[in-house]
Amino acid sequence: MGLLDGKKVLCADDDLEILNLVTRHVRAMGASVVEASDGEDALRVARDERPDLIILDVMMPGMSGWEVCRAIREDSSFASVGVLMLTGIGERLNEMTSPLYGADDFLDKPFDFADLEDKLREVIAKRS
Questions:
Q1: How many helices (H) and strands (E) does the chain have?
Q2: What spatial distance separates the first Cα and last Cα of the chain, rounded to whole Å?
Q3: Which is nearest to 3 in space by CA: 59, 67, 84, 58?
Q4: Distances, alpha carbon 71 to alpha carbons 6, 17, 25, 68, 100, in Å
Q5: pLDDT (tens digit, 9 = 90+) per residue, 46-68?
Q6: What is the 3-state secondary structure (H, E, C) of 8-54?
Q7: CA 3 – CA 92 distance, rounded (Å)
Q8: The pTM is what?
Q9: Rounded distance between C-alpha atoms, residue 62 and residue 36, angstroms
C-alpha cells in the first residue's frame, strides 16, 4: 500500500520540470494529483478540488506559495489539509518563514525523493 493511497494532492510549481517530477512521484505513492503552475491557479484549484495535501513552491508568479498557504490557513474548511513548501531560497529563510504562513513543513530544493516521502509522512501524521 502506498503512503498516499486514496489521497488527493495538489502540486503547484512554476518550474514545469520539477512539477512533472513531483507529480509523477506523488502518483507513484498512490495519490490522485491535480496541478497548478502559479499561485492564483493553485488557490483556485485548491478551492475547486479540495485536496488532502498541498505541495507548494514558494516562488511562483502572481501569488507566492506563502500567500497561497496563508489564504488556505485563513479558510477553516482547509483545517485538515497538510501543506508542504518546496523552495530553493535557502534553508534558513524557509525554516523561519514557512511556519509564519501556516505551512506544516518545508523542503529545500534540490531534494531527494526519500526526503520528500519523509516530509509527506510527517505532514500527514500532523494533520490526521
A1: 5, 5
A2: 18
A3: 84
A4: 25, 26, 26, 5, 12
A5: 999 999 999 999 999 999 999 99
A6: EEEEECCCHHHHHHHHHHHHHCCCEEEEECCHHHHHHHHHHHCCCEE
A7: 28
A8: 0.93
A9: 12
d(CA 78, CA 49): 12
Domains plus CATH for the chain? 8-127 (3.40.50.2300)
d(CA 56, CA 29): 18
pLDDT tens for 79-96 read 999 999 998 776 676 666
Residue pair 12/36 in contact (Cβ under 8 Å)? The answer is yes
Cα–Cα distance for residue pair 89/103, rounded to 1 Å: 16
Provide the grid cell at 89.
531560497
Q: What is the pLDDT of residue 93?
A: 65
Look up residue 112 and give its three cell numbers: 531527494
